[in-house]
Every structure is written in C-alpha cells, then in structure tokens.
Amino acid sequence: MLKAVIFDLDGVITDTAHLHFLAWRSVAQEMGITFDEAFNEQLKGISRMDSLLRILRHGGKEGMFSDKQCLALASKKNERYVQSLASLTQQSVLPGIGKVLAEIRAANVKIGLASVSLNAPKILHALGIHQAFDYCVDASRIVCSKPDPEIFLTACAGLHVHPEQAIGIEDAVAGVEAINAAGMLSVGIGADLKHAGLQLHSTRELTWKCLTDFWASRSELKRN
Questions:
Q1: Contact present, 120 and 136 (Cβ < 8 Å)
Q2: pLDDT digit string (tens) for 99-109?
Q3: Can you tell me the distance from the alpha carbon of 178 to that of 193, in angstroms, rounded to the nearest whole number?
Q4: Is the pLDDT of residue 17 over 90?
Q5: CB–CB of 65/56 below 8 Å?
Q6: Geometric angle at alpha carbon 130, from 6 and 212, rounded to 5°
Q7: pLDDT at 119 exceeding the cut of 70
Q8: How many Å from the N-terminal Cα to the C-terminal Cα in the chain?
Q9: Which has fewest Cβ within 10 Å: 80, 116, 203, 224?
Q10: Which of 8, 134, 138, 213 is the catalytic position?
Q11: Which Gene Ontology molecular-function terms are recorded (predicted)?
C-alpha cells in the first residue's frame, strides 16, 4: 500500500532555480567567474557548498580559497538568495501542485518534503503551503547530500513509513538517483530523467490518479 509521497522543493513545488542562479552569478562575478543558466542546471539538487565547489572548478579557481573563505562566499550567496525570496507568493506554487497535495491529503496518505535547501521552511511559509506537509527534511538534518539516499531515508523515518511504501518526486538527476537508492519509487519532472520510474514533462501532469496508476502498475510487476 502506498503510504507516503515525498516531494523535492525547487523545481517541483516551486521554481526558485532562477533565484539561485542570480544569487550565485552575482557572487561568482565578484570572483571573476562567469557562467550561464545551462551550467546552473548542474547545481540543481546539490548542497550549497557542493555548488560553490563546482563553480570554482568551472572558473579554474578550485583550491584557491580557504575553508573559511568558502563559507563566507556561500553565506554571501545565501543572503542574496534569501532577500530574493520576498518575491514568492501563493501564485509561485507550480501548476497542479496545490491540487495534488489536497488529493493526497484526502486519501490519508502522508506528505513529506526532502530538500537540501536550508531555506525550505521559509519558502513553504511564503508559498502558504507549510501546513500541507507532515514532515520536512532539509540539509540541517542530514550529513550526505543527494545523490546519497540519506535525505529520503530520513524523510521516510520521520513519516514512520518504509521506503518501499513511498513515492519520491524530483526534477534533478541527483534527486532521482537518491530516490532510487533509497528503495522508493521515483517520479521525475522534466527532461533527461530517464532513470525515473515515471517521467512527466511538467507538474501539470502530476495528479493523484497518475501516482496511484503508477503505484498499481509497479505493484502488479512485483506480483508477476
């Protein structure tokens, strides 16, 4: 029986990728590093420090900053990103998400959040949907970032369900890999997520019927 659905935040509940991009770009430019939104796709679903290391490597500056300097750079990026969150409203929830959250709740299935963003609680409150979630995991509760399965395993533990009783929903390759490694069924939102058990083009396609049909089809395969 399906007992929980666990969502990623950025790119699934709302799209703050562009806000991350603008914040990282401004910090990177001060270091003499330039990158575009295509490169920014590589930063989806990974932690703040891992993102900084990839940017430094991209700019040929890996190893040129001390740990203390890296922490300061990551903090500067976060300050600029947090300031930009003021632009988020209930209208910033991606299409179909409000409805599917209500449908999952009506079916008495638990709802979790697994986001590496330390700002996840602030974002959920800004969107006006924080009460929809039974348990939320952010980077402060884990040691290993995606694609390690820890964040999804922690969410399952917090919801008191076994991983094989849950579906995870992600928009990033690292996130889908984490869901699969946790032993959950995976739903990928967007292109190039061929390792997801179910791939959807957008959140508009994400419905309770879609999730239950996917669950039923996989359950049938297991029985056979």
A1: yes
A2: 999 999 999 99
A3: 13
A4: no
A5: yes
A6: 30
A7: yes
A8: 17
A9: 224
A10: 8
A11: beta-phosphoglucomutase activity
Cα 165 from chain centroid (whole Å): 20
Residue with tokens 């998400």: 97
Q: Pairing between strand 4-7 and 135-137?
A: unpaired
Active site (annotated) includes residue 10: yes
How do residues 29-43 score in pLDDT, each as one tens digit?
999 999 998 898 888
Q: Evaluate whether 162 touches 128 at the Cβ level (below 8 Å).
A: no
CA-nearest of 16, 8, 40, 37 to 92 is: 16
Active site (annotated) includes residue 134: no
Mean pLDDT of 187-208: 95
pLDDT at 50 over 70: yes
Nearest Cα to Cα of residue 2 among 141, 165, 153: 165
**pLDDT score recorded for residue 224:** 63
Residue linked to tokens 């796709």: 41
- Gap between the Cα atoms of 74 and 54, Å rounded: 12
Q: Decide if 140 contacts 118 (C-beta within 8 A).
A: yes
Other CB atoms closer than 10 Å to residue 102's CB: what's the count?
12
User: Does residue 99 contact residue 106 with C-beta atoms inside 8 Å?
Assistant: no
pLDDT of residue 221: 79
Q: Tell me, what's the pLDDT at 43?
A: 87
Alpha-carbon dihedral 181, 185, 191, 193, rounded to 10 degrees? 30
Please state, rounded to an integer, the average pLDDT across all residues of the chain: 94
Nearest of 192, 183, 203, 209 to residue 8 by alpha carbon: 203
Please, are residues 109 and 3 in contact by the beta-carbon 8 Å criterion? yes
**Number of other CB atoms surrounding residue 162 within 10 Å:** 13
